[in-house]
Amino acid sequence: MDGLFRGLSKLIKITPVTNDDIVFRLHRQLTVLILFAFSIIVTARQYIGDPIDCLPKSEISSDLLDTYCWIHTTFSIESAWNKTIGTEVPYPGIDNSRGSDRVHHYYYQWVCFFLFIQALLFYLPRFLWKSFENHRLSSIVMDLHSPILSHDERSRQIKIFINYFIAHLGYNGIFTFQYYFCQILCFANVVGQWNEPE
Q1: Host domain of residue 53
Q2: Cβ distance 108 to 132 under 8 Å?
Q3: Strands, E, within the chain: which ranges?
Q4: How far is CA 24 from the centre of its chain?
Q5: Total domain count for the chain?
Q6: pTM of full prediction above 0.90
Q7: DSSP-derived pairing of the beta strands 74-77 and 102-105
Q8: CB distance 19 to 133 below 8 Å
Q9: Residue 10: inside a domain
Q10: Distance separating alpha carbons of residues 93 and 82, to the nearest angstrom
Q11: Long-range CB contacts (within 8 A, 24+) of 148-151
Q12: In 166-197, which positions are buried (b, 16+ CB within 10 angstroms) versus exposed (e)?
């Protein structure tokens, strides 16, 4: 099971130069990590257990019947939701299926795929920002994050940084627009994926 989640550790990297804010990092790291982990858990049938168990009444093998039940979805009986549990029905929504008031439930077949797609959509703003930024801030900061830098060398590099900043003031409008575009994309992503239960 440890091998399944080892690849997810690459999503959380601590870098000496941070080129985004905490909300962006939570969006691209924590949310993506959780969604990928849940997608793996849902699809890891051999570690978690059978996703569905059908009760065979004949000589059909249980693996074959489970696969059939998985492919053909499950359903509940609308009129069985309000019956007395234990006397009329064994469980809410479960009853004799001769009636025509079946409600089919297809969601469980697609959960792992939707979790994976959601994780990709949450990672998309980070992917765009990495391509826009292209290590620009790391090269500007140079070695200022190095703990063994002498005080004189640090002062010299800070002066170079200040001179660069003053010389290029007003030239980074597109860069700023790209950052805000990725932030808006993060917000639109959260709002777009927010579903109210019916």
Answers
A1: 2-134+168-192
A2: no
A3: 74-77, 102-105
A4: 14
A5: 1
A6: no
A7: antiparallel
A8: yes
A9: yes
A10: 8
A11: none
A12: eeeeeeeeeeeebbeebbebbeebeeeeeeee
| One pLDDT digit (tens) per residue for the chain, 198 residues | 556 566 666 666 766 667 778 888 888 888 989 998 888 887 776 556 666 777 767 777 877 877 777 777 677 788 788 888 888 877 787 777 766 677 777 666 778 888 899 999 999 998 998 899 887 777 777 777 777 888 888 888 888 888 888 888 888 788 889 999 999 999 998 888 886 555
* Distance, CA of 160 to CA of 151 (rounded, Å): 14
Q: Residue 175: which of 144, 139, 134 has the closest Cα? A: 134
160 occurs within a structural domain:
no
Read off the tokens for 121.
Answer: 């959509």
CA angle at 178 for the pair 186 and 118, rounded to the nearest 5°: 25
Is residue 35 within 8 A of residue 115, CB to CB? The reply is: yes
The answer to whether residue 153 is domain-embedded is no
